[in-house]
Structures are given as structure tokens and as C-alpha cells.
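To whoever picks this up:

The nightly regression suite flagged Deoxyribose-phosphate aldolase as changed. Nothing in the input moved, so I suspect the structure step. Input below, exactly as stored in the fixture:
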Amino acid sequence: MQVGTDDRSLRRFLHGLPGVDQVGLERRSAVLATRSIKAESKRRAIDLAISMIDLTTLEGADTRGKVAALCAQARRPDPEYPDAPSVAAVCVYPDLAGFAAERLAGSGVGVAAVATAFPSGRSSLDVKIADTRLAVEAGATEIDMVIDRGAFLSGRYAQVYEEIVAIKEVCGDAHLKVILETGELAGYDDVRRASWLALLAGADVIKTSTGKISPAATLPVVQVMLQAVRDWHRLTGEHRGVKAAGGIRSAKDAIRHLVAVNEVAGPDWLTPDLFRFGASALLGDLLRQRRTQLTGHYTSADHIGRA
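Regenerated output under the current build:
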């Protein structure tokens, strides 16, 4: 797909995208939120959601001990029920990526590291490249970068595009997840434009938010992003993914998002390679609901292990 990469060409393309029908989008979200699935499918949906989680710790007080506990939980989310699937990845700051990689070696769980001046995205490109290189050389298999929202909202699309391209090159074999921080964008049309800009620049996955801004992963916003990767696939034949991060805390919410993935993008996207949850708090409720499905009795939070 050929699009010019200067501001004028990108503006012409991005502002030429069809506008989002806000009323229709929100009405469809309301309908999807009421969709139920059969009891026999719920267990499979819960396991799928667990396998899509990026367990995350992104606090200034993070320690190796906390990351070690998180990695242990990622490998074996429910020690009493070892058939529970592992999560998709553990997400940490770049300076802890190497330690996480050691703890997760041979597990199949990815190591994701936030980079590019997370969460603001406000720094020089040289600093962002160095931040990314540090994480990749330490063993990160995935990079979660943030776009400069100030540049995007000012219409400096070429700057955002060039930064994504540069970070993608530094990533090498590591997958690049591009955080749009949708809570800071002006509306659904901007979410669509930011999604397409990231896809044009080479994002493997487009991600709603850092988890530091509210609102984050709302169902309408995730729908817009799913539409973007679906339409990208139709045009190019390439599969790109979506990560819904921030605000998804219950199994019910997760299943609503899985229904949206299936109905908006399609069943091909019902895999951890193409859809993720950035919602560590979600894991506890998924495990409680999973035990309920297995035993027929509700399990309280006190009986589910925590990292």
C-alpha cells in the first residue's frame, strides 16, 4: 500500500478516511455488551482470555522480587489448577527486561518492555531509540512504544510516522506494539487516523493506552481499532493485531471484547498473536470464574494467588 510519508500526503490520506458513525458505533457496542455465550463456550472463552493477557507492572517502586513473582504467576496463573493456560507476556520497564527474560526462559511467555519515554512519549528520537535498544538487547521479545500525542494532535503526522519506522527498525525480531493513548485523542475519527498511521508505519499491534490515562480501552474505541486492522488485512493481506489496555477488570468485560473481536475483525483474530489484554487486574476474576466453571462453586478473591 503506497502512501506518501510527508505531512501533506499523510494528512490527505488520513483525513480522507471515512468518518466514524458515532451513534452507530456506540449502538453496536451496547448490543455487543448484551451478547451472551453458551455455558459450554464460556470456559473456552475464559482460557482464551487468560492466554491473551500481558501481566504488567509499571511502577517506580518495581523490584526484582515483584517481577519474579509476576513471572511465576505468568507461567502458572493458578497453581491449584495447572491446566490453566499461561499468559501471553509479562510487561516491564526496559531495565527489568533482562531479569524477566531470565525468569521466563523456556516458558513460551513473552517479555514485553515499554519504551520511547513511556508514558508521555515526549523525548528526542535518539533517547527513544536508545530506550528501545536497551530493552531488545536485554531480551525483550515485544516493545510497547507510545506515540507523541502532541505531534499527532498538531498534525505533525510525518514526525509520528518516522518515529514509529525508526523504532520498528531497532526492534529487529521483536514485535512492536504502538500505544495511541486514545483517552487523549479528540474522538473516534482521531482513533481511526492514529490507528492507520501506526499501521502504515509498520506497527505489528495497535494498542489503546498506557493505562495511565482514563478513559482507556472502551468497547467503541476497541471496535474502531479492530475495524482498522480488518480493513488493513483486506487491502494488504497482512494480519496486524490490537491490544486493549486499561479498564478491563472482569471476565464479563473480557468476553464482551472477545465477542467484538469475532464479530468486527473475525475469528482469525481470536489468538494471542493478534489480540491482547493489557489488564493485570483482569486475571484474578478470570481465574475465579474458571474455578466456578470447574467446581460449580464461587471462589472468593482470597483463594486466588496474587503476584
